[in-house]
């Protein structure tokens, strides 16, 4: 079941926002094209919050070691990470963002 995690107005363009849904940390990103992305917030290389990193285009880069993850697929695009993070389907309803943390997108 989808859970309201934030208002669309809570997001800042090209910055990540960390939310926790049923114990699952998720990074929300509003990209330059106006699309909202939701990916696992924990870097697979170093157990670091990705929401503290840097958004560039369609990637979110871990601030600690520089691994960049695709916002669309969750796949790492640079080392040292080699395992992907989960990507969640986002539903927008009346200006609010909803996510079901038990359902990841098929990529």
UniProtKB/TrEMBL annotation:
Range of residues in the leader sequence: none
InterPro entries: Rieske_2Fe-2S (IPR017941), Rieske_2Fe-2S_sf (IPR036922)
Keyword Repeat set for record: no
Location of the Rieske domain: 3-99
Statement: the UniProt record of this protein carries the keyword Metal-binding: yes
Alphabetically ordered keywords of this record: 2Fe-2S, Iron, Iron-sulfur, Metal-binding
One Gene Ontology molecular-function label: 2 iron, 2 sulfur cluster binding
Protein name as it appears in the record: Non-heme iron oxygenase ferredoxin subunit
Species per Swiss-Prot/TrEMBL record: Mycetocola lacteus
